[in-house]
Amino acid sequence: MIGALKGRLESTHEGGCVFDVNGVGYLLSCSRKTLDALAGREGAQRLLVETRVSQDAITLYGFADAAEREAFRALIEVKTVGPQKALIVLSSLTPDGLARAIAGKERKRLSEVKGLGAATANRIVDEPAMQKWAVGRATPEADGEGALPSVAPERGAEADAVSALVNLGWKQPQAVTAIARVAKRLGEAATLDALIREGLKEMAR
User: Which of 60, 67, 93, 199 is at a distance of 20 to 30 A from 134, taking alpha carbons?
Assistant: First the structure.
């Protein structure tokens, strides 16, 4: 299976692009946001790839970053949401925007995505797996304090707490956000034990 490609953008078309890797053109299906990101860069680029195999085809889906690929993988697990509808969603919403919409049960926001429809939007919001995916990724936009970090700290008690949550089975982006919230609440004097304990409570909400 192909997990990533490094090459140059050869051409774009509705719903995807041709990506040149050492003279071999790979046909990739991509969201509009990924296509825009590719068009805005010059030289060699790296794309993450999801390979889907069906009875009559092998299809490659390209992503500008890991967050979008993770969102794509979560979406296609929802009944009636196939790869093409997942790309439609990701063409309109960033992964964090999607997570906020799901966590906030913003059905209208999702139903307004062109080509999705109200029934599919409701199914996405109500899917327990999607709710779990959204936990920790949804970051506040207007709480007066700005969005929480999505990049793990390199050292210190917060970094150790994030690592502990990841080792317990949580995904890193969710763990990073949860620990950032706890650290902000507890202050600089927070111990590692307190960060982990309160981080677990945050993840369970």
Answer: 60
Q: Which of 136, 147, 70 lies closest to 103 in space, CA to CA?
A: 136
- The model carries a pTM of 0.66
For 7, phi then psi, to 5°, come to -175, -150
Q: Which residue has the tokens 């917060």?
A: 158
Tell me 30's DSSP state: E
CATH number of the domain enclosing 41 = 2.40.50.140
Q: How many domains does the chain have?
A: 3
HEC-encoded secondary structure of 169-194: CCCHHHHHHHHHHHHHHHCCCCCHHH
Q: What does the DSSP assignment read for 104-173? A: TT-HHHHHTSTTT-HHHHHHHHH-HHHHHHHTTT---SSSSS-PPP-S--SSSHHHHHHHHHHHTT--HH
Lowest mean pLDDT among 26-40, 73-87, 159-173: 159-173
Q: Measure the CA angle with vertex 43, ends 39 and 47; round to 5°.
A: 65
Instruction: Kindly indicate the confidence band of residue 178, based on its pLDDT and cuts at 50, 70 and 90.
Output: confident
